[in-house]
């Protein structure tokens, strides 16, 4: 039964946006030595969306944010905080959050970026849950956005088939009537940082002709190693948030996992003993959109009415850092 009276952070509205241009597996067959058959069977991806040359992450983020604000019935001027989870910001600084704040017209909101790669959105939910529950923030916009195709090496077939661009957003606020975030956990393992990274452009390897020549400004990934850790990590953190909220996999209405690889999703569901009918999958349309993947999937689940009032949802992600996190919530 919903526990009434306790203030929880509740998702008041969701929104998402993906750029118009689509890159299909057939298109990739013309760019690198790959096949639609390999990509489909090894990853589940059929196509992904690609930002236009003049589209930056804040442009995608604003589109998703406007839709989430509209769904929540909240005006931009009512926001007191804007958090943008991204590893592909418009610029190192100012933050993409500040660009979004300006474009939305939310002068009273503080804004910043959060860097936790594919786990960025669930890291954001964990952080903001605390702020909303304690009254530190009342109307919060959380966006997961990436333009990963801008840092994708289209000569590396091991990574270039995987990633796409997009944005997903939610508006959070306090609620004492039952629904809201029930539990959340996050975790990190920095010793595996080099498994999934962009080596160049920071203070370790500032941009030089050499770093460009050595392709250090692209995303690098040891996919196989990440894969194994990700499946185990997503299972463990999902079990953790269920335990915290006194839930079992049977109690979950829908699991919305990070969309990185269909084999990772089915393996995680399998280990949790959850049938695939209770798992949301849209990887075939978007590929891996990193921090945008969970909020895009959540928005699609909500708008297609796969999520109904009272449903218990699990959100779970794993990514560079390495990082992982999960959220259990009552809709
Ligand atoms: O967002 C969170 C972080 N990211 C992830 O979680 C991604 C996790 N990893 C993965 O999804 C998978 O590891 C990949 C899809 C990246 C790779 O799949 P895999 O089954 O682990 O393949 P592999 O890297 O072990 O490569 C197997 C073979 C290799 O050929 P050989 O050495 O066996 O002859 C690769 O060269 O597949 C080859 N290969 C390809 N062949 C055709 C790798 N990429 C491609 C490709 N097309 N695009």
Oligomer: single chain
- Report the total helices: 11
Bound molecules: oxa(dethia)-CoA
Q: Termini separation (Å)?
A: 13 Å
Mean pLDDT: 97
Major β-sheet strand ordering: 1-7-6-4-5
**Number of DSSP strands?**
13
Content of β-strand: 15-25%
Rg, Å, rounded? 19 Å
Strand/helix succession: EEHHEHEHEHEHEEEHEHEHHHEE
Instruction: Describe the main β-sheet briefly.
Output: 5 strands, mixed
- Helical content stands at 25-40%
In short:
The chain is of the alpha/beta class and 331 residues long. The chain is built from eleven helices and 13 strands. The protein is globular, with a radius of gyration of 19 Å.
Written overview of the protein:
With 331 residues, the protein is of the alpha/beta class. Helices cover 33% and strands 24% of the residues. The protein is built from eleven helices and 13 strands. It has helices at residues 25-29, 36-43, 57-72, 96-104, 120-133, 157-160, 209-213, 223-244, 262-272, 283-286, 293-303; strands spanning 8-17, 21-24, 47-50, 81-85, 110-114, 140-147, 165-175, 180-188, 196-197, 220-221, 254-257, 312-319, 323-330. The strands form four sheets. Strands 1-7-6-4-5 form a five-stranded mixed sheet, with helices on both faces. A four-stranded mixed sheet has the order 8-13-12-11, sandwiched between helices. Helix 3 (57-72) packs across helix 4 (96-104) and helix 8 packs parallel to helix 9 (262-272). The longest helix is centred in the last third of the chain and has 22 residues, at 223-244. It is globular, with a radius of gyration of 19 Å. Bound molecules: oxa(dethia)-CoA.
């Amino acid at each position: 039964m919903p526990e009434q009276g306790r203030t929880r952070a509740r998702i008041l509205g969701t929104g998402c946006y993906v750029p118009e241009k689509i890159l299909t597996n057939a298109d990739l067959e013309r760019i690198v030595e790959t096949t639609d058959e390999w990509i489909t069977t090894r990853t589940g991806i059929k196509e992904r969306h690609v930002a236009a040359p003049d589209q930056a992450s804040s442009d995608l983020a604003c589109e998703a944010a406007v839709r989430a604000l509209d769904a929540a019935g909240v005006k931009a001027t009512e926001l007191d905080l804007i958090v943008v989870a991204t590893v592909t910001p418009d610029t190192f600084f100012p933050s993409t959050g500040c660009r979004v704040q300006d474009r939305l017209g939310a002068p009273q909101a503080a804004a910043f970026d959060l860097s936790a790669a594919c786990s960025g959105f669930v890291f954001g939910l964990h952080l903001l849950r605390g702020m909303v529950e304690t009254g530190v923030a009342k109307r919060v916009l959380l966006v997961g956005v990436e333009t990963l195709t801008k840092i994708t090496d289209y000569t590396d077939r091991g990574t270039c088939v995987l990633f796409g661009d997009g944005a997903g957003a939610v508006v959070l606020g306090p609620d004492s009537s039952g629904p809201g975030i029930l539990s959340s956990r996050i975790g990190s393992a920095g010793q595996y940082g080099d498994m999934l990274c962009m080596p160049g452009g920071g203070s370790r390897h500032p941009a030089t002709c050499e770093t460009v020549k050595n392709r250090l400004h692209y995303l690098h990934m040891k996919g196989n190693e990440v894969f194994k850790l990700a499946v185990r990590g997503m299972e463990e953190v999902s079990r953790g948030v269920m335990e915290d909220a006194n839930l079992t996999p049977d109690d979950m209405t829908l699991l919305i996992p990070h969309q990185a690889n269909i084999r990772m999703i089915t393996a995680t569901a399998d280990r949790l003993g959850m049938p695939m009918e209770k798992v949301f999958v849209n990887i075939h349309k978007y590929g891996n959109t990193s921090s945008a993947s969970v909020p895009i999937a959540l928005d699609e689940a909500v708008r297609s009415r796969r999520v109904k009032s009272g449903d218990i949802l699990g959100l779970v992600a794993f990514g560079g850092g390495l990082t992982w996190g999960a959220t259990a919530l009552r809709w």
